[in-house]
Amino acid sequence: MALRTLLVAGLATSATAAKLLVSGYAKGEGSNGTVLTLDYPSLKTVSTNSKLGPQPTWLDTSLYREGLVLGLDEAWATPDKAGLYSLKKGANGALDVAGFATVLGGPVSTQFYNKKQAVAIAHYGGGAISTFTVSKDGAFTPLQNVTYGAEGHGPGAGQTTSHVHHAVLDPTQSYLVFPDLGLDATHVFCIDPKTNKLTAHADLKAAPGAGPRHAAFWKSGNKTFLFIVHELNNSLVSYEVTYLPNGGGLSFKQIDSKSTYGDKPAPAGAAAGEIQVSPDNKFVLASNRNATLQNVPNPNPANATQVPSDSIVTFKPSPDGKLEFVQLAPSGGKFPRHFSTNKDGSLVAVANQQSFSVDVYQRDVKTGLLGKKVSSAFDLPSSPNNVLFVDE
């Protein structure tokens, strides 16, 4: 793997003990994808794990301090071999497989719940939700499978059946929600704290053809909001959440809806991706894919040819859930499927899937503005789809 390091004065010290974990799809048939551990700020590869099948698609560091990381193999071509992995942290951030469970097809997201006793999985390819308990040594015990079909599917070409895309825990840790791109719905479940079982409640319905993909809860005073990014109509929608009595579900009031291109309409073919709330709870960020807006310097310093870049959008939510556009910034490459901030929000790492690069940008925590690129890892061995900062 090649790498390039650009350090902004005074910035690298905030993350000198950090590493990046990066999962990626295999480049071709017959090979496995990888999970990489990269040092920050050099982005030098310190560990490569190629034992998570051909399509490692998601990493979860909720148990990192306990020595475990969860990973998923989406297994497009062989959905009966889709898997949930636990990875044990070794020396210098190396990750070795500790546990495995076969799961329903097309897993793309995990969410721990009930004090990290159990984990929920969203299945895009399988149109389903599954849950498992997780032991301290990384072993899994299956709990539930909830499978959806084509009934109520959206009108779009990619909406012929259910495609559950994300699993998200609410701030009270009493509910899980699951955006379903195929059904134009977000499924709502309450959690039984004694059994780890989930009980379904009424869905939140999106506009026909919107394609809800990922979501994030946000607290403002005594109010709770849910932000949902929609892949097909490239909208970011804000809902105020009301908790119904006696664990009776959630109700939602739409507050705002914005283009994920801020003050611009979404270009043809655009596909919104990830959404995250900043660590200080003051901003919400989302990624835009498949519609490059500008060219940026090549991450390879030996190549003077500029490369096309997709974008990261930032909004500032008001206390009542309205969304104020802040910035549309380059992602550093094509198809930013995922991004994450470091602990204090001063850095944003972007997994540019089609550019085979991870690009790290400076971020001003006061203004929310993304600034200069500070480092890049390019020519990665697999197509990056998930990137997470971890502190050693």
From TrEMBL:
Domain of life: Eukaryota
Keywords: Signal
Molecular-function GO term, any one: 6-phosphogluconolactonase activity
Gene3D superfamilies in the cross-refs: YVTN repeat-like/Quinoprotein amine dehydrogenase
InterPro entries referenced in this protein's UniProt entry, alphabetically: Cycloisomerase_2, Lactonase_7-beta_prop, N2O_reductase_N, WD40/YVTN_repeat-like_dom_sf
Signal peptide: 1-17
Sequence similarity: Belongs to the cycloisomerase 2 family.
Protein name (record): 3-carboxymuconate cyclase
Organism encoding this protein: Periconia macrospinosa
